[in-house]
Amino acid sequence: MEYVSLNNGVKMPSVGFGVFQITDKEECVRVVLDAIDVGYRLIDTAQAYGNEEAVGEAITKSSVPREELFITTKVWIGNSGYEKAKASIESSLKKMKLDYLDLVLIHQPVNDYYGTYRAMQDLYKEGKIKAIGVSNFYPDRLVDLALFNEVKPAVNQIEINPFHQQLDAQTFNQKYNVQLQAWAPFAEGKNGMFENQDLKTIGDKYNKSVAQVILRWLLQRGIVPLAKTVNKERMLQNIDVFNFELSEDDMNKISSLDKKESSFFNHQEASAVEMLASLVR
Hints:
Helix content is 42%, strand content 14%. By secondary structure, it is α/β, with parallel strands linked by helices. The strands form two sheets. An eight-stranded parallel β-barrel has the order 3-4-5-6-7-8-9-10, surrounded by four helices. It has a two-stranded antiparallel ribbon with strand order 1-2. Helix 3 (82-96) crosses helix 4. The longest helix is centred in the first third of the chain and has 15 residues, at 82-96. The protein starts with a strand and ends with a helix. GO terms for molecular function: oxidoreductase activity, acting on the CH-OH group of donors, NAD or NADP as acceptor. This is Aldo/keto reductase.
Protein backbone atom coordinates (compact mmCIF):
# COMPACT_ATOMS: atom_id res chain seq x y z
CA MET A 1 0.00 0.00 0.00
CA GLU A 2 1.16 3.52 -0.79
CA TYR A 3 0.36 6.51 1.43
CA VAL A 4 -0.22 10.26 1.22
CA SER A 5 0.65 12.78 3.93
CA LEU A 6 -2.15 15.03 5.16
CA ASN A 7 -1.57 18.67 6.09
CA ASN A 8 -1.15 17.72 9.76
CA GLY A 9 1.42 15.02 9.04
CA VAL A 10 -0.96 12.05 9.36
CA LYS A 11 -0.32 9.27 6.82
CA MET A 12 -3.38 8.08 4.90
CA PRO A 13 -3.59 5.14 2.46
CA SER A 14 -3.69 6.31 -1.14
CA VAL A 15 -6.68 4.10 -2.00
CA GLY A 16 -9.68 3.37 0.17
CA PHE A 17 -12.68 1.10 0.45
CA GLY A 18 -16.20 2.54 0.87
CA VAL A 19 -19.23 0.81 2.40
CA PHE A 20 -22.05 3.04 1.13
CA GLN A 21 -25.33 1.12 0.57
CA ILE A 22 -24.06 -2.05 2.26
CA THR A 23 -26.82 -2.12 4.87
CA ASP A 24 -27.07 -5.80 5.74
CA LYS A 25 -24.92 -6.29 8.83
CA GLU A 26 -23.61 -9.78 8.04
CA GLU A 27 -22.77 -8.80 4.47
CA CYS A 28 -21.04 -5.61 5.61
CA VAL A 29 -18.89 -7.49 8.13
CA ARG A 30 -17.91 -10.02 5.45
CA VAL A 31 -17.18 -7.33 2.86
CA VAL A 32 -15.00 -5.25 5.21
CA LEU A 33 -13.08 -8.36 6.29
CA ASP A 34 -12.56 -9.27 2.62
CA ALA A 35 -11.37 -5.73 1.86
CA ILE A 36 -8.85 -5.83 4.71
CA ASP A 37 -7.75 -9.30 3.66
CA VAL A 38 -6.91 -8.21 0.10
CA GLY A 39 -4.90 -5.25 1.39
CA TYR A 40 -7.18 -2.28 1.96
CA ARG A 41 -6.35 -0.28 5.06
CA LEU A 42 -8.64 2.75 4.61
CA ILE A 43 -12.28 1.93 5.39
CA ASP A 44 -14.79 4.73 4.74
CA THR A 45 -18.19 4.70 6.44
CA ALA A 46 -20.67 7.35 7.66
CA GLN A 47 -23.35 7.82 10.27
CA ALA A 48 -25.93 7.97 7.48
CA TYR A 49 -24.85 4.61 6.03
CA GLY A 50 -26.25 2.73 9.03
CA ASN A 51 -23.36 0.27 9.14
CA GLU A 52 -20.86 1.67 11.65
CA GLU A 53 -21.52 -1.25 14.01
CA ALA A 54 -20.79 -3.74 11.24
CA VAL A 55 -17.56 -1.95 10.34
CA GLY A 56 -16.56 -2.03 14.00
CA GLU A 57 -17.31 -5.73 14.25
CA ALA A 58 -15.13 -6.42 11.21
CA ILE A 59 -12.29 -4.39 12.74
CA THR A 60 -12.57 -6.42 15.94
CA LYS A 61 -12.55 -9.70 14.02
CA SER A 62 -9.66 -8.72 11.77
CA SER A 63 -6.15 -9.90 12.58
CA VAL A 64 -4.72 -6.61 11.31
CA PRO A 65 -3.65 -4.34 14.20
CA ARG A 66 -5.87 -1.31 14.76
CA GLU A 67 -2.97 1.10 14.23
CA GLU A 68 -2.52 -0.21 10.68
CA LEU A 69 -6.11 0.64 9.77
CA PHE A 70 -7.41 4.07 8.78
CA ILE A 71 -11.09 4.44 9.72
CA THR A 72 -13.25 7.30 8.46
CA THR A 73 -16.79 8.30 9.36
CA LYS A 74 -18.93 11.34 8.55
CA VAL A 75 -21.27 13.49 10.65
CA TRP A 76 -24.75 13.53 9.16
CA ILE A 77 -26.91 16.63 8.63
CA GLY A 78 -29.28 15.65 11.44
CA ASN A 79 -26.36 15.74 13.88
CA SER A 80 -25.21 19.24 12.93
CA GLY A 81 -24.25 21.80 15.56
CA TYR A 82 -21.67 21.66 18.32
CA GLU A 83 -23.42 19.58 20.98
CA LYS A 84 -25.20 17.16 18.67
CA ALA A 85 -22.15 16.63 16.48
CA LYS A 86 -19.87 15.98 19.45
CA ALA A 87 -22.34 13.49 20.92
CA SER A 88 -22.79 11.78 17.56
CA ILE A 89 -19.04 11.30 17.11
CA GLU A 90 -18.78 9.82 20.60
CA SER A 91 -21.65 7.52 19.58
CA SER A 92 -19.82 6.52 16.40
CA LEU A 93 -16.76 5.61 18.47
CA LYS A 94 -18.91 3.42 20.73
CA LYS A 95 -20.68 1.77 17.79
CA MET A 96 -17.34 0.84 16.25
CA LYS A 97 -15.75 0.04 19.64
CA LEU A 98 -12.83 2.35 18.88
CA ASP A 99 -10.72 4.61 21.07
CA TYR A 100 -10.12 7.04 18.21
CA LEU A 101 -11.10 7.72 14.60
CA ASP A 102 -8.48 8.40 11.96
CA LEU A 103 -10.66 10.84 10.04
CA VAL A 104 -14.04 12.49 10.60
CA LEU A 105 -15.74 14.50 7.87
CA ILE A 106 -18.77 16.77 7.71
CA HIS A 107 -20.97 14.80 5.32
CA GLN A 108 -22.74 17.71 3.63
CA PRO A 109 -22.39 21.54 3.64
CA VAL A 110 -25.89 21.86 5.07
CA ASN A 111 -27.29 22.97 8.46
CA ASP A 112 -24.94 24.20 11.24
CA TYR A 113 -21.73 22.81 9.82
CA TYR A 114 -19.70 25.52 11.57
CA GLY A 115 -20.85 24.20 14.94
CA THR A 116 -20.07 20.69 13.76
CA TYR A 117 -16.59 21.73 12.73
CA ARG A 118 -15.91 23.32 16.13
CA ALA A 119 -16.89 20.05 17.81
CA MET A 120 -14.58 18.15 15.49
CA GLN A 121 -11.72 20.55 16.25
CA ASP A 122 -12.17 20.00 19.99
CA LEU A 123 -12.22 16.20 19.62
CA TYR A 124 -9.16 16.48 17.38
CA LYS A 125 -7.33 18.40 20.12
CA GLU A 126 -8.40 15.73 22.63
CA GLY A 127 -6.84 13.05 20.42
CA LYS A 128 -10.09 11.22 19.70
CA ILE A 129 -9.81 12.17 16.01
CA LYS A 130 -6.49 12.09 14.14
CA ALA A 131 -7.65 14.30 11.24
CA ILE A 132 -10.77 16.30 10.35
CA GLY A 133 -12.25 17.39 7.06
CA VAL A 134 -15.32 17.77 4.90
CA SER A 135 -17.28 16.02 2.19
CA ASN A 136 -19.15 17.52 -0.76
CA PHE A 137 -17.79 21.01 -0.08
CA TYR A 138 -17.45 23.12 -3.22
CA PRO A 139 -14.52 25.58 -3.37
CA ASP A 140 -16.44 28.56 -1.93
CA ARG A 141 -17.51 26.69 1.23
CA LEU A 142 -14.14 24.96 1.56
CA VAL A 143 -12.19 28.23 1.39
CA ASP A 144 -14.56 29.87 3.89
CA LEU A 145 -14.02 27.04 6.37
CA ALA A 146 -10.24 26.98 5.82
CA LEU A 147 -9.84 30.72 6.34
CA PHE A 148 -11.87 31.04 9.53
CA ASN A 149 -10.85 28.02 11.58
CA GLU A 150 -7.77 27.22 13.60
CA VAL A 151 -7.49 23.71 12.14
CA LYS A 152 -7.72 23.58 8.36
CA PRO A 153 -9.63 20.69 6.78
CA ALA A 154 -7.22 17.88 5.97
CA VAL A 155 -9.50 16.13 3.46
CA ASN A 156 -12.36 17.00 1.12
CA GLN A 157 -14.28 14.01 -0.23
CA ILE A 158 -16.19 14.85 -3.42
CA GLU A 159 -17.55 13.18 -6.53
CA ILE A 160 -14.72 12.79 -9.05
CA ASN A 161 -14.73 10.53 -12.08
CA PRO A 162 -13.83 10.81 -15.78
CA PHE A 163 -17.19 12.44 -16.56
CA HIS A 164 -16.95 14.92 -13.64
CA GLN A 165 -13.28 15.73 -13.17
CA GLN A 166 -13.52 18.70 -10.77
CA LEU A 167 -10.46 20.56 -12.08
CA ASP A 168 -11.46 23.89 -10.50
CA ALA A 169 -12.10 22.18 -7.18
CA GLN A 170 -8.68 20.53 -7.33
CA THR A 171 -7.02 23.92 -7.85
CA PHE A 172 -8.48 25.35 -4.64
CA ASN A 173 -8.01 22.20 -2.58
CA GLN A 174 -4.35 22.17 -3.57
CA LYS A 175 -4.02 25.88 -2.75
CA TYR A 176 -5.18 25.22 0.81
CA ASN A 177 -3.30 21.90 1.06
CA VAL A 178 -6.49 19.85 1.41
CA GLN A 179 -6.27 16.23 0.21
CA LEU A 180 -9.00 15.30 -2.26
CA GLN A 181 -10.77 11.96 -2.00
CA ALA A 182 -13.00 10.72 -4.83
CA TRP A 183 -16.35 9.15 -4.08
CA ALA A 184 -18.12 7.36 -6.94
CA PRO A 185 -14.93 7.12 -9.03
CA PHE A 186 -16.88 4.91 -11.46
CA ALA A 187 -20.05 7.08 -11.26
CA GLU A 188 -21.78 3.83 -10.24
CA GLY A 189 -21.55 2.82 -13.91
CA LYS A 190 -23.85 5.64 -15.02
CA ASN A 191 -23.71 7.04 -18.56
CA GLY A 192 -21.96 3.97 -19.88
CA MET A 193 -18.78 4.50 -17.86
CA PHE A 194 -17.64 0.87 -18.09
CA GLU A 195 -18.47 0.67 -21.81
CA ASN A 196 -16.60 3.85 -22.76
CA GLN A 197 -14.42 2.98 -25.74
CA ASP A 198 -11.58 5.37 -24.86
CA LEU A 199 -11.26 3.88 -21.37
CA LYS A 200 -11.46 0.34 -22.74
CA THR A 201 -8.75 1.06 -25.33
CA ILE A 202 -6.44 2.45 -22.65
CA GLY A 203 -7.17 -0.57 -20.46
CA ASP A 204 -6.34 -2.99 -23.27
CA LYS A 205 -3.00 -1.24 -23.73
CA TYR A 206 -1.96 -2.13 -20.16
CA ASN A 207 -4.02 -5.33 -19.81
CA LYS A 208 -6.10 -3.58 -17.16
CA SER A 209 -9.84 -3.12 -16.61
CA VAL A 210 -11.68 0.18 -17.09
CA ALA A 211 -12.01 0.39 -13.31
CA GLN A 212 -8.24 0.02 -12.86
CA VAL A 213 -7.60 2.71 -15.48
CA ILE A 214 -9.91 5.12 -13.65
CA LEU A 215 -8.32 4.44 -10.28
CA ARG A 216 -4.83 4.87 -11.73
CA TRP A 217 -5.90 8.14 -13.40
CA LEU A 218 -7.06 9.45 -10.02
CA LEU A 219 -3.83 8.38 -8.29
CA GLN A 220 -1.75 10.18 -10.91
CA ARG A 221 -3.79 13.32 -10.26
CA GLY A 222 -2.91 13.04 -6.56
CA ILE A 223 -6.46 12.07 -5.59
CA VAL A 224 -7.33 9.24 -3.19
CA PRO A 225 -10.07 7.04 -4.75
CA LEU A 226 -12.70 5.25 -2.69
CA ALA A 227 -13.94 2.20 -4.56
CA LYS A 228 -16.84 0.03 -3.43
CA THR A 229 -17.72 -3.52 -4.37
CA VAL A 230 -19.04 -6.55 -2.50
CA ASN A 231 -17.12 -8.89 -4.83
CA LYS A 232 -13.72 -10.00 -3.51
CA GLU A 233 -12.28 -10.55 -7.00
CA ARG A 234 -13.12 -6.96 -7.92
CA MET A 235 -11.58 -5.79 -4.65
CA LEU A 236 -8.35 -7.49 -5.71
CA GLN A 237 -8.55 -5.81 -9.11
CA ASN A 238 -9.29 -2.39 -7.66
CA ILE A 239 -6.26 -2.45 -5.38
CA ASP A 240 -3.95 -3.75 -8.12
CA VAL A 241 -3.21 -0.29 -9.53
CA PHE A 242 0.36 0.39 -8.40
CA ASN A 243 2.21 -1.63 -11.04
CA PHE A 244 1.53 0.51 -14.12
CA GLU A 245 1.49 4.17 -15.11
CA LEU A 246 -0.70 5.96 -17.62
CA SER A 247 1.13 7.94 -20.28
CA GLU A 248 0.62 11.67 -20.81
CA ASP A 249 -1.42 10.85 -23.94
CA ASP A 250 -3.62 8.51 -21.91
CA MET A 251 -4.17 11.19 -19.25
CA ASN A 252 -5.05 13.74 -21.94
CA LYS A 253 -7.47 11.34 -23.59
CA ILE A 254 -9.28 10.84 -20.27
CA SER A 255 -9.27 14.62 -19.72
CA SER A 256 -11.32 14.97 -22.92
CA LEU A 257 -14.14 12.92 -21.37
CA ASP A 258 -15.03 15.61 -18.81
CA LYS A 259 -18.71 16.60 -19.02
CA LYS A 260 -18.25 18.99 -16.07
CA GLU A 261 -21.46 17.88 -14.41
CA SER A 262 -22.45 15.51 -11.65
CA SER A 263 -23.76 12.05 -12.46
CA PHE A 264 -26.01 12.44 -9.40
CA PHE A 265 -26.91 16.02 -8.36
CA ASN A 266 -25.33 19.43 -7.91
CA HIS A 267 -24.84 20.24 -4.22
CA GLN A 268 -24.91 23.96 -5.01
CA GLU A 269 -28.46 23.96 -6.35
CA ALA A 270 -31.22 25.07 -3.98
CA SER A 271 -33.28 21.99 -4.89
CA ALA A 272 -30.39 19.77 -3.76
CA VAL A 273 -30.24 21.50 -0.38
CA GLU A 274 -34.02 21.09 -0.03
CA MET A 275 -33.72 17.40 -0.91
CA LEU A 276 -30.94 16.83 1.64
CA ALA A 277 -32.82 18.75 4.34
CA SER A 278 -35.93 16.64 3.69
CA LEU A 279 -33.99 13.54 4.71
CA VAL A 280 -33.79 14.74 8.33
CA ARG A 281 -37.16 16.46 8.72
